[in-house]
Amino acid sequence: MLIFRQLFDPTSSTYTYLLGDKRGGEAIMIDPVFEQVRRDAALVVELGLRLTWTLETHVHADHVTGAWLLKQRIGSRTALACDSGAADADRYLVHGDKIAFGRRYVSVRATPGHTGGCLTYVLDDESMAFTGDCILIRGCGRTDFQQGNPGALYRSVHNQILTLPDGCLLYPAHDYRGLTVTSVGEERRFSPRLGGDIGEDDFTGYMNNLGLPHPKQIDVAVPANLRCGRPDDEAAALAEPTWAPLRYSFAGIWEVQALWLEEHAREVQVIDVRQPEEFTGPLGHISNATLIPLGELAGRTGELSHERPIVAVCRAGGRSAQATVILQKAGFKDVANLAGGMLRWRAEGCAVDGGEALPRTVEADSYVI
Ligand SMILES: N[C@@H](CCC(=O)N[C@@H](CS)C(=O)NCC(=O)O)C(=O)O
Ligand SMILES: [Fe+2]
Fold first, then answer.
1. 12 CB near ligand 1 (under 6 Å)
2. Three-state SS for 228?
3. Which end of the chain is more exposed for a tag (fewer CB within 10 A), N or C?
4. CB of 54 within 8 A of CB of 34?
5. Cα–Cα distance measured from residue 59 to residue 81, given in angstroms and rounded to the nearest whole number
């Protein structure tokens, strides 16, 4: 079974795509974004997948690729077009290549025009294609830098993409209006630049008069992407919180486990964000915890020290996850959520002040947020 996820980077309006084969668990990722690597790596792990390749549709001008960072974090290998001019990739792709993940694969089509080294990746059954900036939804990538060429783009679209089946879904590298997907049939009929009877000269005239400002990040993004996103300061990019063995969830929350917290409770500030009656109720509370109900937290951050990490706690881990977001916004750097909250704390037999003997076994999977 195919696992498919469309991910979005709001800063650059970039789409990243994860394609996995459930059987065997291999996956590929198309156009990862550097700043989203923690999120995307967490998703891969949570879905039980093993990322084998990151694929670039082109050398991006508006964001830095996450390819190098994903390789360091979860061992994926990097691939992009032979014609991209980029260094340091594990594989250089040409038209007709296939990249397998489990029993599935994508095939490579050379679709130059937006840049000299643009590729489109077509899923084995031609139900989906990942067009990069060759086709955008009712549009296309600009052609005014990085060996851009309107005639080449026109031919790429007509010979390599609009020749796919009408129902083939097209997933672009960007959308600036909130649209997520289009299809070959739709673009043939409705693209104001490339659809209907528009000819190559009409299209070239259109593209040569776009008058767009250069992407804000171009001077940083292009040199970084020409080495697959490897930064100057590699150690800084790989830095992880060191005060505890934290896990980063796809929901965007740093989590700490109950058994670690029980051993290290004195080294951190434990903030219990439940209501007072829960704090003194049957589940009890962690012995050095300070009670600050979630609704009061934003107004009481002055009571907390910036010198020691903070672990937020609640009944099941939902409200305390929100507490970590509030604390980070208030400028606290070392903040984590107690995974599973007091329910898991008790289920794992950790000590509490107050509280009652548990009336029944707390099922490991019965945590209600
Ligand atoms: N405002 C954006 C511009 C991004 C941009 O120019 N995107 C390229 C793709 S890399 C493009 O082709 N855009 C087409 C368009 O904006 O119509 C930024 O500064 O990053
Ligand atoms: Fe682009």
1. yes
2. coil
3. N
4. no
5. 9
